[in-house]
Specification:
Layout lengths: L5 H4 L9 H10 L5 E2 L11 H10 L15 H15 L9 E4 L2 H12 L5 E6 L3 H9 L3 E6 L15 H6 E6 L12 H14 L2 E5 L21 H4 E6 L12 E4 L2 H14 L5 H12 L1 H25 L12 E5 L6 H12 L1 E2 L1 E2 L10 E5 L4 H19 L3
Parallel strand pairs: 1-10, 3-4, 3-5, 5-6, 6-7
Antiparallel strand pairs: 2-8, 7-8, 9-12, 11-12
Helix pairs in contact: 3-11, 4-11, 5-6, 5-10, 12-14, 13-14
Bound molecules: pyridoxal-5'-phosphate.
Length: 393
Amino acid sequence: MPALSNRFEKLPEYVLARIPARKKALIEQGVDVIDLGAGDADLSPPARALDTLAEASRRPAMQRYGFGLGLPAYREACAAFMRKRFGFGFDPYTEVVPLIGSKEGISHLAFAYMEEGAVGIIPEPGYNSYQGGTLLSGGEAYRYALRPRTDFLVDLDEIPADVLKRARLLYLNYPNNPTAAVAPRDYLERVVRRCRELDILLVYDNAYSELAFDGYVPPSIFEIDGARDVAIEFHSLSKTFNMTGWRLGWACAKPEIAGALAKVKSFVDTGQFMAVQAAGVAALESYEAFVPGNVAIFRERRDAAVQAFREAGFTCETPKATMYLWIPLPEGVPSALFADRLMEEEGVVVLPGSGFGAGGEGFFRISFITSPERIAEAARRAGRVLASLESRV
Ligand SMILES: Cc1ncc(COP(=O)(O)O)c(C=O)c1O
């Protein structure tokens, strides 16, 4: 066997890698497993998307390669969403890049900008495609720990000057997975200004832009003056329309940046199945009929989760957005030990903060991906494990 590359060897284990096999084994033993792990809800996509997929999948024209262009109607629908939701125009052909899920686009972007000596600034805990892209493309990862101290925001002024000088990409994600933090506008203004000064491309991951509660409306980075010069924004149908498995998203940026991503992709993929893109158009067009009701379901689950985990002895904030609670553990309780014991002794899957990188230690994440009743049951079981660990600390 040939040696594995250094860049491959630098990849840490994926936080979700071992869970499916363990979960399957527990279910086979008859354990009543409650899975609050992945951000992958048990809800259906819009009916129009399902009907369109069924119909489009039979059309001969849809069976062929989509290539980078893909289905023009999908590009037009993405541009229409940006215009309607945020109020500004993107050219569907030069400023929109259709993606096979936003994860692949986020990872592949780095191949256009990274090389030896170049740095990607990566919030930790954070979504794994930031470091995946940076490390696989031969760049260097500078990990910034997201902690309550900075309201889970990346403070560029805390990053050493020599790192900033070599930085080409800054990954930001608000509303944030896994911390559920949101970014105030003045923070985003500061970041855009610093990225312009430092010549850093701001990779703004807006996967949770539509999953927000209590009147909070997440912004696009392009609402910030000057962002068009320095930012690319990633969107996903996964969470907004319960379409995680469909693999559909898009990126928006000025033509030079969008074109760089599109060029990388032309060497690694040939586009999403065009029937899926047609269904994506149907989903985007059902926004008004579908999204508010869907968000209400997540809000009900959020409220149940906050109440139940508090009653079980945990402290947690009520998040304004996302499908996550990021729950602190008592000093001295390692998150991996807590998550392991919760799964093995009580059959509840949560993600340990340390699985999102060292910056996540001291927390665990739950997702509101099942009913309020099951979430409440999971919280009671988690409370039992917490009590037994606390009695040892
Ligand atoms: C922060 C964040 N960005 C991006 C994604 C990827 O979404 P997609 O399904 O579009 O690849 C996820 C999925 O969990 C996420 O949490």
